[in-house]
């Protein structure tokens, strides 16, 4: 065994040989390193190292991406508010890389706004995460096929799937909060009307206010108090198990200020107005769709509801109706309407106000008028002395005049509407002339009314 060990060890280099070889290798490596630094500049070295790293990083697996889509509707029922927030948000992200953009300046906006067109992309960075936005058109929209700049469609946002929760829980809320901050102070009320494609809007700039309404002070105060109480009772409505909504019925002769009152309510509340024409409703399902598309913090207006036979009193016989029942085509049912304003479907929106107007309250079905549907009935009567004083101050800027006392004596019996009196006041800026026109008009109205009353009395006595 000893011999074998000695024989084997003679093939290994000695320690001195190893040390000599190491010293030679160290000297050579230092020499090569000095030559490398002399021949290769620092910038070239950095470039080569970066290319080296990129080469090996590409050999790794490519990241996986997820895509969110934001379009105009959700399951065809409710309007997607996130798409409006996205439009405002992206308007501030569009930059020089976007070669084609859609721009505009609208009433009520201080600045020009920009929007994406089809094919353009925006890359946004949120907490180090890259999100790529792209605008696309609805495939089934005929107009979008022919018009590249038609701006109705949807947004796609693409991101690495590892950030999915972060995008969904934080980034989308960031978009909503940012868009609210961008539009703060530029709120312009909208008046919506419904077409086949949904609700279309224009700016609502009706100047009516409660101060300018030709209405008795106590009635105005009761309406304002009711509105304020409604707005402050969100938790109360939830506690008692009722949908947070309020219904108003405005009834009275034409020209008594029903539309002006609605405008005053909208301006007071800063609520948009949705004008729903029942004649355009095709079915109960269409009615539900229309009501579900209405935003919260809004006033839904159904004017002249008495003109639709569907809501007429079901207890009345056909002979009681002045119009031929066969003239009407029932496009929706009364039960469908009731369900939308006070049934299961009414709970799908909150902080809403619905207003019905009618010239003939007596023809409406009692089921439509009960509390919970129409909570407050407001009689819009002929102009009173107090209401006329408001008109005089609005139109002429005066509170006292020698003709006002005589006018007060006629105004109650003449049965004149605020609209007709306002028309007389518009005839001159001179208080003497304008009030003289009002006085003559009231005298004629009084004669006309007396004659009508006399004819009615004669008819009654002859029976």
From TrEMBL:
InterPro entries: AAA+_ATPase (IPR003593), AAA_N_dom (IPR025753), At3g28540-like_C (IPR058017), ATPase_AAA_core (IPR003959), ATPase_AAA_CS (IPR003960), Mitochondrial_chaperone_BCS1 (IPR050747), P-loop_NTPase (IPR027417). One of its GO terms (molecular function) is ATP hydrolysis activity. PROSITE patterns: AAA. Transmembrane segments: none annotated. GO terms for biological process: response to stress. It catalyses: ATP + H2O = ADP + phosphate + H(+). Residues 244-384 form the AAA+ ATPase domain. Keywords: ATP-binding, Hydrolase, Magnesium, Nucleotide-binding. Its cofactor is Mg(2+). Gene3D superfamilies: 6.10.280.40, P-loop containing nucleotide triphosphate hydrolases. Belongs to the AAA ATPase family. BCS1 subfamily. This is AAA+ ATPase domain-containing protein. It comes from Jatropha curcas.
């Amino acid at each position: 065994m000893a011999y074998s060990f000695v024989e084997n060890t003679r093939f290994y280099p000695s320690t001195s040989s190893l040390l000599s070889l190491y010293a030679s290798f160290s000297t050579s490596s230092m020499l090569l390193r000095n030559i490398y630094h002399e021949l290769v500049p620092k910038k070239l070295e950095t470039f080569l190292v970066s290319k080296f790293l990129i080469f090996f990083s590409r050999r790794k697996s490519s990241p996986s991406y997820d895509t969110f889509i934001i379009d105009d509707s959700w399951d065809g029922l409710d309007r997607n508010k996130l798409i409006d927030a996205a439009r405002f948000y992206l308007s501030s992200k569009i930059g020089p890389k976007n070669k084609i953009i859609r721009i505009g300046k609208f009433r009520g906006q201080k600045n020009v706004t920009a929007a994406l067109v089809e094919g353009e992309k925006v890359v946004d960075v949120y907490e180090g995460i890259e999100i790529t936005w792209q605008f696309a058109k609805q495939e089934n929209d005929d107009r979008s096929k022919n018009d590249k700049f038609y701006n109705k469609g949807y947004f796609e946002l693409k991101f690495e799937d590892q950030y999915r929760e972060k995008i969904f829980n934080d980034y989308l809320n960031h978009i909503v909060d940012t868009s609210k901050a961008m539009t703060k102070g530029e709120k312009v009320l909208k008046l919506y009307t419904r077409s086949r494609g949904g609700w279309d809007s224009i700016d609502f700039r009706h100047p009516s206010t409660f101060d300018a309404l030709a209405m008795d002070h106590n009635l105005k105060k009761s309406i304002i108090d009711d509105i304020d109480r409604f707005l402050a009772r969100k938790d109360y409505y939830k506690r008692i198990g009722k949908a947070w909504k309020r219904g108003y019925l405005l009834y009275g002769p034409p020209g008594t200020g029903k539309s002006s009152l609605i405008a005053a309510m909208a301006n007071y509340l800063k609520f948009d107005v949705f004008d729903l024409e029942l004649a355009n409703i095709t079915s109960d399902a269409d009615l539900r769709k229309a009501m579900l598309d209405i935003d919260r913090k809004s006033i839904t207006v159904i004017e002249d509801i008495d003109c639709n036979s569907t809501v007429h009193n079901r207890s009345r016989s056909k002979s009681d109706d002045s119009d031929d029942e066969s003239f009407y085509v029932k496009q929706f049912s009364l039960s469908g309407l009731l369900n939308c304003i006070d049934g299961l479907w009414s709970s799908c929106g909150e902080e809403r106000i619905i207003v019905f107007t009618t010239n003939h309250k007596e023809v409406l079905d009692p089921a439509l008028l009960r509390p919970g549907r129409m909570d407050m009935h407001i009689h819009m009567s002929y102009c009173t002395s107090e209401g006329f004083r408001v008109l005089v101050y609005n139109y002429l800027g005066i509170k006292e005049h020698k003709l006002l006392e005589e006018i007060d004596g006629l105004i109650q019996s003449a049965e004149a509407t605020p609209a007709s009196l306002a028309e007389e006041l518009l005839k001159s800026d001179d208080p003497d002339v304008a009030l003289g026109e009002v006085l003559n008009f009231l005298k004629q109205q009084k004669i006309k009314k007396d004659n009508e009353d006399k004819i009615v009395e004669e008819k009654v006595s002859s029976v």
